[in-house]
Automatic annotation (TrEMBL), chains A, B:
Family to which the UniProt record says this protein belongs: Belongs to the esterase D family.
Protein name: S-formylglutathione hydrolase
Entries under PANTHER family matching the protein: S-FORMYLGLUTATHIONE HYDROLASE
Enzyme class: hydrolase
Keyword vocabulary terms for this entry: Cytoplasm, Hydrolase, Serine esterase
Job of this protein: Serine hydrolase involved in the detoxification of formaldehyde.
Species name: Lachancea mirantina
A Pfam family: Esterase
Length: 297, 297
């Protein structure tokens, strides 16, 4: 599994690599950006931990690369950050029949679709959590272990990507994959909100019992928080999607009486919206959180 | 002169205001963004210094607001930053007949045009350095001096905006306006490079002697650096426009034997390009430079 380079951009003290590769899971080319911090180029040679940032509806790898400003934090602490795409792309990929922003292209929702015509290509769960990390590991660590893509990684994301981060973290909990999870304005309970219901119906079908396997607010009830993990969430109080789509209160409600109670740290921040102005404002706090969990501080 | 609000966005510890106003100089509505740092809301009440960031070709006020990451620096030091537009806008505004990216809309070049059909609207020099600062001063300081828009300000910019910053700083030198100037990959000698020659021909006509009044590499020879001012410049070594359009060496050559010799600090940074990845990487250094000149550290 090889990657092509579409650009190598000097940024802060390291480089942002714009890559693409043929994905077997997705059945087409996928773009992915990765920031290699200054420690990659002049560090002590120890493997550098990786954080995955999953973007939200409509986004490509470029949005967060340009606007979230993780790079300076990556240099501060010595981690690498991977910005995957949010869906399959290309003329051969089926899109929403209405070409809406919240389903189909740009809206893969980080699930493996089972419904036609999406099941062949929309395999974003397997892509993000299996194929991509292993492909990156193979590509970058050919000669020596330079970056830790698979084990002891961090995962975070924004909105739909926050959903993807929570789900991945919980589904792999205790399996030596993600040791750190945070989210910016995540969709926490997709079964109960319009964005999630539309995506799950289209990608997974109408069986709402099945949806629960893909919904962090259900999954978390069956995951024992054996290590006292905390999950850091920021949510803007002026986010126009807060009341209808995001609802962090539903996750807090779901974990009452479980081993996750008081472990989900939801910070509702006054006046912030849903944009990258919000994300970039709290990236420094999330970077410190992940750096601590990854053993960097 | 009043401003309309098109949005007030929480960002870092302050707010980004998206404003627009009817400009007399330009003869149409102009957008401008301003970041008010946390000190504006909870500071000691002393007037907050302002830095103007002039953007490059094709940009609106949004590009630098989203991608340059001045905001966190503004909070660090306690300055405000103003992001003006780069040209007149609107259906009634004459554009380049070829609709090129480097002339007409999005490419006002920070000069007052004298040539038809541009002279009526393309008055960016008077707009940026006279009308806008005074209009902002009137609007924000109605009741008390909260922000210092006119005197003791900083000015900086990127590419065409770096040209605009250098020119404004030098033309107002010693007039208690700009006390601090820096630039990111500026066009330093427009008379000698294609972008500048195209703009000056179209906006100012064919008299090349006249162009010198608008060219920092000529203007600077007639400005006595009485206060030992330094100008900070960063320039990426892999900038595709370096050799043909930007040429910081021409400014260094121009100041040889003048009071500016050794005062223009050109940092050629290895591998950086012309994008906002480059700008944002060096904003922290420029912020510290301006903060020092503005008496904030």
């Amino acid at each position: 599994m090889s990657f092509e380079s579409n650009g190598e951009i000097a940024c802060c003290g390291g480089k942002l690599l714009k890559l693409s590769h043929k994905s077997n899971e997705i059945g087409s080319h996928m773009d992915v950006n990765i920031y290699l911090p200054k420690q990659y180029y002049n560090g002590d040679g120890n493997p550098i931990p990786v954080i995955y940032f999953l973007s939200g509806l409509t986004c490509t790898p470029q949005n967060a690369s340009e606007k979230a400003f993780w790079q300076i934090q990556a240099d501060n602490y010595g981690f690498s950050i991977v910005f995957p795409d949010t869906s399959p792309r290309g003329d051969e990929i089926p899109d929403d029949k209405d070409q809406s922003y919240d389903f189909g292209l740009g809206a893969g929702f980080y699930v493996d679709a089972t419904e036609k015509p999406f099941a062949d290509h929309y395999r974003m769960f397997s892509y993000i959590h299996e194929e991509l990390p292993h492909a990156l590991d193979k590509f970058f660590n050919r000669d020596a272990k330079k970056l830790e893509f698979v084990h002891n990684t961090g995962i975070t994301g924004h909105s739909m990507g926050g959903y993807g981060a929570l789900t991945g973290f919980l589904k792999y909990y205790g399996k030596d994959r993600y040791v750190s999870c945070s989210a910016f304005a995540p969709i926490v309970n997709p079964s109960q909100v319009p964005w999630g219901q539309k995506a799950f119906t289209g990608y997974l079908g109408h069986d709402k019992e099945l949806w629960k396997q893909h919904d962090p607010s259900y999954i978390i009830k069956n995951v024992d928080n054996t290590t006292g993990s905390e999950i850091l969430i920021h949510q803007g109080s002026s986010d126009p999607f807060l009341e209808k789509q995001l609802r962090p209160d539903l996750l807090l409600e779901a974990v009452k009486g479980t081993s996750w109670e008081n472990k989900i740290k939801v910070n509702v921040v006054d006046g912030f919206d849903h944009s990258y102005y919000f994300v970039s404002s709290f990236v420094p706090q999330h970077a410190a959180f992940h750096a601590k969990n990854l053993g960097l501080i």
